[in-house]
Design brief:
This protein is of the alpha/beta class. It contains 26 helices and 31 strands. α18 (606-631) runs parallel beside α20 and α19 (635-658) runs antiparallel to α20. It binds one RNA strand through β8, β12, α7, α10 and β25.
RNA sequence: GGGAGUUUAGCUCAGCUGGUUCAGAGCACUUGCCUUACAAGCAAGGGGUCAUUGGUUCGAAUCCAAUAACUCCCACCA
């Protein structure tokens, strides 16, 4: 049967993925084996796969598949996140397109649409992961808003409230005027932006003098209730106790003096708008200033905005400045660079806003979370993220957990008719508590009004490792006991605070144990120009197209080859191409081996036996190094090492060494061993390239469809013979030497040559040298050989007699250059050795090495001189 | 403003506790090959003052200090 010379991934991938599903090979149940648990960082339910997911999930799959082959009970739990804000934004937009306004819908009606949307788009991303080969236990697929997860969130909220860790209060929060909700500090992204600094004149009440105040936000003057200067600022002492008139507004406000003001900035005078700036708010509290809120929730001016009411904040800025300039109240306008907070999800400019929200106290719980990372119970890879983590936890502020959205877990607080509220897991409990609290036994459910807000998305994802195994509702169930704590968490560093830190807190609080042992931080996938891949830039390739083009295995290899932990990954399609080429290489190695005919009666040659012994030793040595790489989470290293083992050592060397002559059979012992080695390599490669390895493993072993490489045993490093590896290294150099001569002299590979080695060495690989160099034999000679091309390996001379004209000049030049270099080298060694301080201070071993270098160099120089003599 | 990190070949990166892993790998590049597994390939090559400057040391890519450039995180400077 003819096998195509090009590997075709598509059919193979589809075939094996459904095979794995059918055989339930991804599924895990607790048993006697050791567990290896990984929980997926749940992607947004309405999201589509991007390159970051590709990298992240490839890494997880590599670790999970490897653990499974190492005999562990691997369980990789998939799921999606309801992503409160971004999903709500998408649903609202979808409704708007259908001419429906969210405000016209009841909560129930709205949620119906939202769930429909979720059902329609929710599966996409998980299906895309299947194309990548992800070996998730799909039976366990969870959603942060499914029943168990929803109830877990509510249970935790009530519990934390009862413990006094959750409270409700009026604070200055980050308001997203587009999503119409508060967001946490972590959800505010500060971006450098060029704006203007406006210098405005505030006239002193009743006088003709004025003070100039610099501001970036002139539209907020409607809310000004004071102007503040530094108490020791000599320029403004005359203002003490006076009042000024807010330009264009006419309101008379006091001058206050506080050391908060930076005298160097602007004019040293600061306008105070307590309702719209956190610092101003603090000063407002300190000096009992009025707080005038001038904005509506959507960022337009409210009735306090006077003639600007209804105008958007940025339009208002322009309008006000125009009016002020016309009124002569603007001194100057400067360009100014500053950082402006944007909403992580909607990118809207964040408006500081005073509002009543739910908060979680963080200081105590943070301490425990810091401890377990500091003492190494949880390890970060790379370790540098410990610093970031520590810094955040040491300066942590309370977490604003309420969101003015519907898509999420509704806050389980019920307000009482006469004020106050109760917190309970359900409406019945709430009613009972309400009756107790008010002493009013006649209350009915209709008297209570549940808080309409929902919780921050991260308030559900922080429970993920616990809630996946139902560890919140049933803290001592079999699954949580078996699978928790999970082994490795693979995630991007940008959610270290949002997610990683908080999961650690939840673990401590609800399981009294860490949620995972290791955190592997991936890098950020960037384009060739170093830009972060993003939808708006349009610089992110479509992962599914990449898979179609290069095969899932090829793309996986491409992602991993250059992705050391914590380092950004400059993505280049060429890497996937390299991965695809590698697939093809493996495919063709299989074609070669399967093309051999086996002769049961043919005895195994000494050359074949030695070749296989060499490769087995080399394989074991390499395995040890790969195991070391994995223990340090150096996946790209492990992959590159395996890649070279397969391509260079197995294909380019071993297969060439044992390859029978054209149309000649191979002996059975060699054939069987090669197949076994090939299979071992496929096992080693399987975690990286699951599809092609399964395909080849089946072809090589002619296995029934009941078996799978997925559950084959991962080869383990065994002892190896260092000598045979060394001998082969020498043989390799001889082979490369001869090939080099052919290459530089233009001698065809088909022309049979003769090789002389000066000395009476003899190497176990002589037969291999003869085969791979196309020479008629190796002759040991005592003396230099005339009329020959020459090269050296170490200090041994080799000659290839060559009848045609030898370019003596060129040969001489080459030899003399080498002689010169070696003499220089010897010189430097001698210099070291003649340095008494070196000989006295350096360890004996190091000195011995130098002496050996000296001896070798001297021998080589002698040999080179002899060769030069021979030529002359 | 505070903190962390990076700087080694054209590109992306290894290089651990200073000395035979010491100047490496992959890709790219050059040359020659359509050799009966593979041109998505084979063979052979070229290529680096280890950012700069000092210091420690018998010895520094490696340790220390300063400088420069870049990256990231955190922080309420209008």
């Amino acid at each position: 049967m003819e096998i195509a010379s090009k590997y075709n991934p598509r059919a193979v991938e589809e075939k094996w993925y459904s095979f794995w599903l059918e055989k339930k090979l991804f599924h895990s149940e607790p048993d006697r084996r050791k567990p290896y648990t990984v929980v997926i960082p749940p992607p947004n339910v309405t999201g589509v796969l991007h390159m970051g997911h590709m990298l992240n999930n490839t890494i997880q799959d590599v670790l999970v598949r490897r653990a499974r082959m190492m005999g562990k009970n691997a369980c990789w739990v998939p799921g999606t996140d309801h992503a409160s804000i971004s999903t709500e934004a998408k649903v609202v937009k979808m409704l708007a397109e259908r001419g429906i306004n969210k405000r016209d819908l009841s909560r129930d009606e709205y949620m119906k649409y939202a769930w429909e949307w979720k059902e329609k788009y929710g599966g996409i991303i998980l299906n895309q992961l299947r194309k990548l080969g992800a070996s998730c236990d799909w039976d366990r697929t969870a959603f942060t808003m499914d029943d168990i997860r929803y109830e877990s969130v509510i249970r935790v909220f009530v519990d934390l409230y009862n413990k006094g860790l959750i409270y409700r209060g009026a604070r200055m929060v980050n308001w997203d005027p587009q999503a119409l909700t508060a967001v946490s500090d972590e959800e505010v992204i500060y971006k450098e932006s060029h704006g203007k600094l406006f210098y405005l004149k505030y006239f002193v009440d009743g006088e003709d003098k004025y003070i100039v105040v610099a501001t970036t936000r002139p539209e907020t003057i409607m809310g000004d209730t004071a102007v503040c200067v530094h108490p020791e600022d000599e320029r403004y002492q005359w203002l003490k106790g006076k009042k000024v008139i807010v330009p264009g507004v006419g309101r008379v406000v006091p001058i206050i003096m506080d050391e908060y003001v930076d005298r160097e900035f602007g004019t040293g005078a600061l306008k105070i708008t307590p309702a719209h700036d956190i610092n101003d708010y603090n000063l407002g509290m300190k000096y009992s200033l009025d707080s005038i809120d001038i904005f509506n929730d959507n960022g337009t001016l409210n009735d306090n905005g006077g003639k600007y009411a209804g105008m958007d904040r940025f339009a208002c800025r322009k309008a006000i400045m125009k009016d002020l300039e016309e009124a002569g109240l603007v001194e100057k306008i400067e360009d100014y660079e500053n950082k402006v907070g944007h909403s992580e999800r909607t990118d809207a400019v964040i408006e500081p806003k005073l509002s009543t929200q739910w908060f979680m106290k963080m200081s105590d719980i943070a301490k425990k979370a810091l401890e377990v990372v500091e003492d190494g119970t949880i390890k970060f890879h790379p370790e540098k993220f410990k610093n970031t983590y520590r810094h955040w936890l040491e300066n942590i502020k309370d977490w604003c957990i309420s969101r003015q959205l519907w898509w999420g877990h509704q806050i389980p607080a019920w307000y009482l008719p006469e004020g106050g509220f109760v917190v309970a897991e359900n409406a019945d409990d709430a009613l009972r508590l309400a009756k107790e609290k008010t002493g009013n036994a006649n209350l009915t459910a209709a008297d209570l009004r549940q808080d309409s807000d929902c919780l921050d998305t991260w308030f559900s994802s922080w429970l993920w490792p616990l809630s996946l195994f139902n560890g919140i509702l049933e803290p001592d169930n079999d699954e949580i006991r078996y699978y928790y704590p999970t082994a490795d968490l693979i995630t991007a560093p940008d959610i270290i605070f949002f997610w990683v830190a908080r999961m650690i807190m939840a673990g401590e609080e609800y399981a009294h144990q860490v949620p995972f042992r290791n955190v592997y931080f991936t890098g950020i996938v960037r384009d060739k120009l170093g830009r972060k891949m993003s939808k708006s830039l349009g610089n992110s390739p479509d992962p599914i197209e990449l898979i179609n083009k290069f095969g899932a295995d090829g793309v996986r290899v491409g992602m991993l080859l250059t992705a050391p932990a914590g380092n950004d990954l400059p993505f280049d399609e060429a890497l996937c191409e390299q991965g695809r080429n590698f697939s093809n290489k493996i495919w063709n190695a299989m074609r070669l081996v399967k093309g051999w005919s086996v002769d049961e009666n043919l005895p195994q040659s000494e050359e074949n036996r030695t070749s296989l012994l060499w490769f087995e030793s080399h394989l074991n040595k390499t395995l040890a190094s790969i195991e070391d790489d994995f223990s340090k989470y150096r996946l790209s290293n492990a992959l590159m090492t395996t890649y070279k083992l397969v391509w260079d050592d197995f294909c380019s060397w071993l297969l060439e060494m044992i390859k029978p002559a054209y149309q000649k059979p191979i002996d059975k012992a060699t054939y069987d061993t090669v197949i076994a080695l090939f299979e071992k390599l496929m096992c080693m490669l399987h975690p990286f390239m699951p599809f092609i390895t399964e395909e080849i493993w089946h072809i090589l072993g002619e296995r029934p469809d009941t078996e799978s490489i997925m559950i084959a045993t991962m080869p383990k490093a065994q002892s190896f013979d260092e000598n045979i590896i060394k001998d082969f290294e020498t043989a390799k150099e001889v082979i490369i030497g001869v090939r080099g001569l052919r290459n530089s002299k233009g001698i065809s590979p088909k022309e049979v040559l003769h090789l002389c080695e000066r000395g009476n060495g003899g190497n176990a690989f002589d037969g291999i040298i003869i085969k791979l160099c196309n020479i008629d034999g190796i002759e040991r000679v005592a003396d230099k050989v005339e009329n020959a091309l020459s090269f050296m390996v170490g200090s041994t001379e080799y000659y290839v007699p060559f009848s045609q004209n030898i370019d003596k000049e060129a040969e001489l030049k080459k030899l003399e250059e080498e002689l010169k270099y070696t003499e220089g080298f010897l010189n430097s060694v001698m210099k070291k050795l003649s340095n008494e301080r070196f000989v006295n201070n350096a360890p004996e071993k190091v000195v011995a090495v130098e002496r050996q270098k000296q001896a070798d160099a001297e021998q080589k120089i002698a040999a080179l001189k002899a060769q030069i003599e021979a030529l002359k």
